[in-house]
Amino acid sequence: MKRMLKKDIIDSVSEELSMQKQDVSVAADVILETISNALARDRRVELRGFGSFSVRSRKPRTTKNPRTGQVMDIPERRTLHFTMSKSLKESLISDMD
Tell me: the pLDDT tens digits for 58-93? Predict the structure, then answer.
């Protein structure tokens, strides 16, 4: 599977909209920073037709190191959660057929 980098997205959008790459890059940075700031403030970010991002808390837990057998306490932490939209899910499923 080939990965797509931020640079590739900027190149594609720049070509599609006939805009300078520098302008598209600035816009992408502003969008990503806005999303990051919203998530940091515990706000849900929803992009219609794509999906939604939210922050969830994981409870503290105890686990055992499989190599040493040592019991370790893992503290509570916040994680990013993504839920894809129904239309994105359907397009991914139809691509497999």
Answer: 999 999 999 999 999 999 999 999 999 999 999 988
Neighbours of 86 (CB within 10 A): 9
Do 6 and 21 meet the contact criterion of CB atoms below 8 Å apart?
A: no
**Domains of the chain, each with CATH number or no CATH:** 1-43 (no CATH), 51-97 (4.10.520.10)
The gap between the terminal CA atoms of the chain, to the nearest Å, is: 17
pTM: 0.79
pLDDT digits (tens, 9 = 90+) for 3-61: 999 999 999 999 999 999 999 999 999 999 999 999 999 999 999 999 999 999 999 99
